[in-house]
């Protein structure tokens, strides 16, 4: 199958044909710097596209819906984080009002996935360097592909409506240490360049937002939080009213959705400050 989740009619048609029992919603745009530069595209895919999939899943009567989210949704400060936080809220809403179970899982950085820091660093090393890191002290949570797969499967088995499940990924890892290990013993020596945090990036990621109370699940390595449900009327048809250049309307939409509907912190007015996007393969996460 090949289709665009922004195409509501085609998504609904496909779900009506297949009548799936379990849905793992992993379709999303996730490259933070590009989404900062193109916020409308982020919302079209990660918010309105997710709503299309949720609508189709509910109409098809699925028994389990697992929304793949990110740790960047906790105390969001980027377009990526805001869009995924909104998708969590929409998923929670459907769980409370439709048959079946609708929940989210928050991922850290998946090692070896497309666009991951290891992939980017290796590409930079193969090109002769330099390896770029945003800040000497920046840290991120990491999980292996195997851990990510297990989290999704376990979430589908033990999660409940309106929850966001998070895997215990251990201690966060300093990105500069990862870069140094990969560059060690390489001849000729590969330089490491620190480029500075980009708009929307955090020094340290968080698994749970301020005010979220985490609870132990039935799995010893998985905790969960309850996500406030977001009424889809907050986001329906907004894409027809917000153009790619209408940042004021887009900021108003984000502020209204995040603070009024989800009860999160206010959205800063400089959230759309565009980052440098000339190095798409930049390894700094």
- Per CATH, which architecture of the domain at 8-108 and 143-168 and 206-258? 3-Layer(aba) Sandwich
| Subunit organisation of the chains | single chain
Determine and state the CATH class of the domain at 8-108 and 143-168 and 206-258.
Alpha Beta
Euclidean distance between termini CA atoms: 31 Å
CATH level 3 topology of the domain at 8-108 and 143-168 and 206-258: Rossmann fold
What's the number of helices? 8
Assess the beta-strand content as a share of residues.
Answer: 15-25%
Rg, nearest Å = 19 Å
What is the molecular shape?
globular
Description:
The chain has 285 residues and is α/β, with parallel strands linked by helices. The protein has a domain at 8-108 and 143-168 and 206-258: NAD(P)-binding Rossmann-like Domain (Rossmann fold, 3-Layer(aba) Sandwich). 37% of the residues lie in helices and 15% in strands. It is built from eight helices and twelve strands. It has helices spanning 8-18, 32-37, 39-60, 79-97, 117-126, 145-158, 175-183, 247-261; strands at residues 22-25, 64-70, 101-107, 109-110, 131-133, 139-140, 142-143, 163-167, 173-174, 192-194, 215-216, 222-226. It has a six-stranded mixed beta sheet with strand order 1-2-3-8-12-11, sandwiched between helices. Strand 11 and strand 12 form a beta hairpin. Helix 1 runs parallel beside helix 3 (39-60) and helix 3 runs parallel beside helix 4 (79-97). The longest helix has 22 residues, at 39-60. The chain is globular, with a radius of gyration of 19 Å. Residues 276-285 have low confidence and may be disordered. Pfam families: Polysacc_synt_2. InterPro entries: NAD(P)-bd_dom_sf (IPR036291), Polysac_CapD-like (IPR003869), Polysaccharide_Synthase-Rel (IPR051203).
């Amino acid at each position: 199958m090949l289709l665009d989740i922004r195409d509501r009619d085609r998504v609904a048609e496909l779900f009506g044909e297949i009548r799936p029992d379990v849905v793992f919603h992993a379709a999303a745009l996730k490259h933070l710097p590009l989404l900062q530069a193109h916020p409308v595209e982020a919302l079209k895919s990660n918010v309105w596209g997710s709503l299309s999939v949720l609508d189709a899943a509910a109409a098809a009567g699925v028994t389990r819906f697992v929304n793949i989210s990110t740790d960047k949704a906790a105390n969001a400060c980027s377009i990526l984080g805001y869009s995924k936080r909104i998708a969590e809220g929409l998923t929670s809403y459907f769980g409370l009002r439709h048959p079946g179970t609708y929940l989210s899982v928050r991922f850290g950085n998946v090692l070896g996935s497309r666009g991951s820091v290891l992939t980017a660093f290796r590409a930079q090393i193969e090109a002769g360097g330099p390896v770029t890191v945003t800040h000497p002290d920046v840290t991120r949570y990491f999980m292996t592909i195997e851990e990510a797969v297990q989290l999704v499967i376990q979430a589908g088995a033990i999660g409940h409506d309106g929850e966001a499940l998070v895997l215990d990924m251990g201690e966060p890892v300093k990105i500069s240490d990862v870069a140094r290990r990969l560059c060690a013993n390489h001849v000729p020596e590969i330089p490491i360049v620190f480029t500075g945090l980009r708009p929307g990036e955090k020094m340290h990621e968080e698994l749970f937002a301020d005010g979220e109370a985490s609870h132990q699940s039935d799995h010893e390595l998985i905790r969960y939080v309850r996500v406030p449900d977001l009424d889809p009327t907050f986001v329906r048809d907004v894409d027809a009213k917000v153009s790619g250049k209408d940042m004021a309307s887009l900021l108003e939409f984000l502020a209204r959705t995040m603070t009024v509907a989800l009860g999160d912190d206010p959205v800063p007015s400089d959230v759309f400050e565009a980052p440098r996007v000339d190095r798409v393969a930049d390894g700094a996460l």
